[in-house]
Amino acid sequence: MRRLQPIGMPFVAAGQRRPHHNLALALEAKNDLDGAVGGYRESLRLQPDNATAHNNLGLVLQKKGLLDEAIGEYRAALRLQAGASAALYSVNLSAALLAKGEVDGAIGAGRTAIRLQPENGDAHYNWVWR
Q1: Which pTM does this prediction carry?
Q2: What's the burial of 80, exposed, middle or buried (CB within 10 Å: 0-12/13-18/19+)?
Q3: Per-residue confidence band for 122, with pLDDT thresholds at 50, 70 and 90
Q4: How far apart are CA 115 and CA 128, in angstroms?
Q5: What is the per-residue pLDDT for 85?
Q6: Closest CA to 80 of 55, 106, 60
Q7: For the purposes of burial, counting CB atoms within 10 Å of the CB of 35, is it exposed (0-12), middle (13-18) or buried (19 or more)?
Q8: Which pLDDT tens digit goes with each residue over 53-66?
């Protein structure tokens, strides 16, 4: 599972509210998963169309074993982000679906990731090894 923006990402678009998102990234790095969930949720309250925050919240929820909630966040990210950059969200959705035992859904999400971004190594890796 991967995320689009690591801690310390220098570019922030004008008007973008990122303090809560950045705090959540820092808390997650310190393994404070509950704090990270709160930070991402606050970030999404302020900016509900932030696909990256939905994806990152999904990652933390998945680490906590909350697969249904994680799957919902990955799907929200996919609804908000189209094209090749959505391949990452499809990779993460595929992994969560597989962890939940939904093999057909995982295969479908994996195929979507490869279709969206054929050069995405993670999508191919997950396809082969899952």
Answers
A1: 0.81
A2: middle
A3: low
A4: 15
A5: 74
A6: 55
A7: middle
A8: 999 999 999 999 99
DSSP result, the chain: ---SS-TT-----TT---HHHHHHHHHHHTT-HHHHHHHHHHHHHH-TT-HHHHHHHHHHHHHTT-HHHHHHHHHHHHHH--SGGGHHHHHHHHHHHHHTT-HHHHHHHHHHHHHH-TT-HHHHHHHHH-
Tokens at 29, concatenated: 């790095």
Are the C-beta atoms of 5 and 52 separated by less than 8 Å? Answer: yes
Residue pair 78/93 in contact by the 8 Å Cβ criterion: yes
pLDDT tens, residue by residue, 51-106: 999 999 999 999 999 999 999 999 999 999 877 778 888 989 999 999 999 999 98
